[in-house]
Predict the 3D structure of the following.
Amino acid sequence: MVHRDSTITDTMVNADTAETYPTVARVAFDMNKVPRTNIDLGNFPFFPAPKGYQYRNVKLKESGQEYFLADGKLMPVEGRSFKAELVREESRPATFSISKVEKSFDRMITSVGGVKVSTDIPTKAEMERVGDEEIYDKERGFTVGFGGIELKTYVLRNRGAEVWVQLSMNNVYGAICIIQKGEFIKGMKEMDMRKDLSETSRIESDDVMEDSDGIAPVLDTMLQQ
């Protein structure tokens, strides 16, 4: 995670140990092997915080870039961007359950055709290859942060667009980044329906989320369970 608060670093894994940066065989990431899906994802950023958790310090941009880990490589992905901290709701106990959060997002993402492409830790060499300027100064490593933290990376290919989701968590809180690369291709029936609605002046503008502190986006809660 990109925050440099010393109170947070105490909860992180020591990034200088050999165990933090394991050397393992890699399988080349191939986007063409990610299955396509036509399931309607709803409104960006598509995935609400799990039940009992909330998004905090939300940052939403129409065009942003973040590094995602796949095949042991940090790859820049650019598109519509959502970044947020993931914390327990104020009325809930402070204990942060990594396993519960992961299971919830895994269920939400795979239920609409997404796949997990990586559960891995960026190597020290890979962090150095990308460099501090990219990760920190340009704020393109929100979920990458200090290194030494396992990243969970998901990808969806939906109606001509890609959706990337990356989670980074410790025992205090988490960080999530969602990027939509490209635009969804609408089916003919959907376009005809929207045209009919437009002609009868019944289309309502989507809610616009802005960067905010401590405010979670209004999202569909059906997938939070």
User: Anything to note?
Assistant: The first strand starts at residue 36 and ends at 37. The beta strands are 36-37, 53-70, 73-88, 115-120, 151-158, 161-169, 174-181. The first helix runs from residue 6 to 9. Residues 1-25, 200-225 have pLDDT under 50 and may be disordered.
